[in-house]
Every structure is written in structure tokens, then in C-alpha cells.
Amino acid sequence: MIYQYYPGCSLHASARDYDESVQGVVKSLAMELKEVPDWNCCGATITPSLNQLQSQILPARNLALAAENRGDVVVPCNACYMSLKKIQYNMAKYKVVREKVTEIFGQAGLRLTGMPKVRHLLEVILEDVGLEKIKQMVKKPLKDLKVVNYSGCQLVRPLGFDNPEDPQALDNLMSALGAEVLPFSQKTHCCGGSLITTQPDLAFQMVDSILEESRAVGADMVVVTCPMCQLNLDAYQDQVNRKFNRTLQVPITYFTQLMGLALGLNKNQLGLQRGIISPFKALEKIG
Predict the structure, then answer these.
(1) How many CA atoms lie within 13 A of 215 on its CB side?
(2) H helices then E strands: how many in the chain?
(3) Is the Cβ–Cβ distance between 201 and 163 less than 8 Å?
(4) pLDDT tens digits, residue range 71-104?
(5) CATH class of residue range 2-121
(6) Does the structure show a pLDDT above 80 at 142?
(7) What is the pTM of this model?
(8) How far is the C-alpha of 47 from the C-alpha of 56, rounded, in Å?
(9) What is the mean pLDDT of residues 14-20?
């Protein structure tokens, strides 16, 4: 299976651990990812508040580049995934957006000749590989590991692939890998995103709410699908704990890292050492 890979800015920088685990897992699953050539930042969630036209052009250019090649576009970052999905929706629904993007592309020698399908990596793994095959491939079950799954807000709405109120994709995958999935009402709540830099007090409250429920239900770790969510919940955890007088630290782990372990990959192949809150004590449960 060959796919086009849009890593986004984070996976080549602050989320290298995510990219390392993605590469390890897809190789185990016999998937081939070919990086979209000359891709650019998608604009994520910040650009729309600064320049609406630019926020359309940035992700559209990536789709134009991908349209020159074959295969669905696979995206591991929730924010990038939603950015690319939204420009597809806007160009299909709004003539003014479509015409403006086409005009600017013409000046740059670009054409959007077709709309490649944009899919999140989790979506591709579940739909194209399937839970039954994944169960058969498990070499080290995540037995006795208690997790809460945090999909975040952009994976599931407004254009996501899972239930926007109670997503099940990540729950089903972690269960298939042998982990004990705990009930978690915050699975689609926002982590604060870029509010960390503009309204930190508000963002810290949002982070604390997610972490506190994970502690309350007895989770060994929080499983995430997005580098922005991972960053907020991991990098700012000490500051949040000090602000709200918490003491317990909770590792924030990418779903591909746990998947890699279950498939028998070495922890050094999965970037697990890069987390600020180390997951290794919790992972002792699975040996």
C-alpha cells in the first residue's frame, strides 16, 4: 500500500518522536509513505485569524502538489488534517474561494487538477489494515496497561472521520493491542492549542481538566494522535501542576508509539525517550 505523506511542520521538529514511531509502524504494516514533494506549512489554526486568503492558499498548495502524484494523502497531525480537509470543503462549496485559489495558482504556475483524498493516519490504519489483522500481528500485548484515549477536538469535528461526541477509533485500536481502555469524558475536549501563548491561564485550566480526569480514573498514560495536544499536555504539565497544586505526573504517549511496542519494535525506534514526562515506569507493566 502506497500513500502520500504530509508530515507537517511538527513531525520534522518538535514531534520527531511521533515521526519516528510513524515510520516504524507503517513499515511493520507494509505501508509505504512517500512524502509530498516541496510541501509547506498548512497554516494550522493560527493563520485564519491573521489572513483568511492565506489560510486557504497554504493548504491548497499542498493538495495541488499531491494531486500530481497517486495515492491518498496521509496526515498524522490533527491540525494539519483539519486544515487540508477544510480547504477541500471550502473549494467545493464556495465559488469565490475556488476562483480566488485558482487565480493565485495560475500566477504561480500551479493547477489543482484533482482532489486527493485526505485521511488521518489513524483512519488509514483502521480502515485499510483493519483491527483483525493488527490483532494477529501483536507480539507484545499491552496487557495491564491502563490508558485513556484523547482524540482532541480537530480529529473528529467538524469534518473528521469518527463520532464527534464519542469517538471509538482510538479506543478500538488500543483494545486490540491489549490495553485496558478506561472511560474518559474529556476525549474530545480542546487542550487549549495555541492559547498557551496568548491566554496561558485559560489554556492551563483546559490542560488541567484533561490531566485531572485521567488521574482520577487511574490511567497509566494518556494516548494522543496530535503533536499539538501532546506538546500542551506534556511540556506544560509541570507548570499546570504547580498552578493547581497537583503532584502526580501522567505520561502523554502517541498511539503509534504504543502500537510499535505491541508490534515488537524496540523502544529506541519509537522516540519514547523524547517525552518530557517519561513513560518508561508505566511501560514496565508490559515488560
Answers:
(1) 14
(2) 14, 8
(3) no
(4) 999 999 999 999 999 999 999 999 999 999 999 9
(5) mainly alpha
(6) yes
(7) 0.95
(8) 9
(9) 96
* 86, three cell numbers: 477544510
Enter the CATH code of domain 132-286: 3.40.50.11810
Report yes or no: 222 and 150 within 8 Å, Cβ to Cβ. Answer: yes
* Cell digits of residue 131: 483491527
Q: Which residue type is seen at 224? A: V
How far apart are the C-alpha atoms of 3 and 1, rounded to whole Å?
7
The position carrying cell 493516519 is: 121
pLDDT (average), residues 171-178: 98
Q: What is the full DSSP assignment across 193-260?
A: TTHHHH-HHHHHHHHHHHHHHHHHTT-SEEEES-HHHHHHHHHTHHHHHHHHT------EEEHHHHHH
Q: Where along the chain do its domains lie?
A: 2-121, 132-286
The strand pairing partners of 221, in sequence order, are 147
Q: Which three cell numbers stand for residue 83?
A: 486544515
Instruction: Tell me phi and psi for residue 180, to 5 degrees.
Output: -90, 115
Residue 47 confidence (pLDDT) above 80: no
